[in-house]
Design brief:
There is one protein chain. This protein is α+β, with helices and mostly antiparallel strands. The chain contains four helices and seven strands. The protein is elongated, with a radius of gyration of 19 Å. The relative contact order is 0.20.
Length: 181
Amino acid sequence: MIPNIMNEIMKREVVKAARRFCEDTNIFIITETVSSESDVQTFDIPSLWAASGNRQDKMEFANVVLVTGDEETLYESSDYTMPDKGSIAIEKAYRSISIMASVKPERAVNELPESLYNQYAEFICYGAASKLYTVAGHENGDLHQYYEREYIEGMRKVKRWRLNSFPHQPFSPRKRNRSFF
């Protein structure tokens, strides 16, 4: 693909592309359910994940996908807040809280998880190739744009598949307050 590029740079770009792919598509999901009835509840998702033994090797927290309290969908800003990445603060008391979150490969991995590699390697390689064509001395704007388009199209396909395959996971775009003049 690109001659004379060190293997380490290529490996790093593949991992970066895989992390971005997982974060943008929310393809790998973990679900944790917690029982609690206090008024203010704060949860650290990585700690919950580790305590339950549900942790997958070489994966870390990426995004909150869905939060439910007593089987009722909760919405960010109105029902819960995220004081910092990986923690959730819920103001109302619920008997059972379920947190669905996505995961991505850790930054320092040498190999991608097998399921990610087997199913999505082509799209991830498009993302890595896109970034490699911006490396000094090997710039090629046309190929960068081509591979970036293919990478984004691959993410769109996976997002569509996820939305069609898991209708119980609602898609709610972020609400944006806009001012019109």
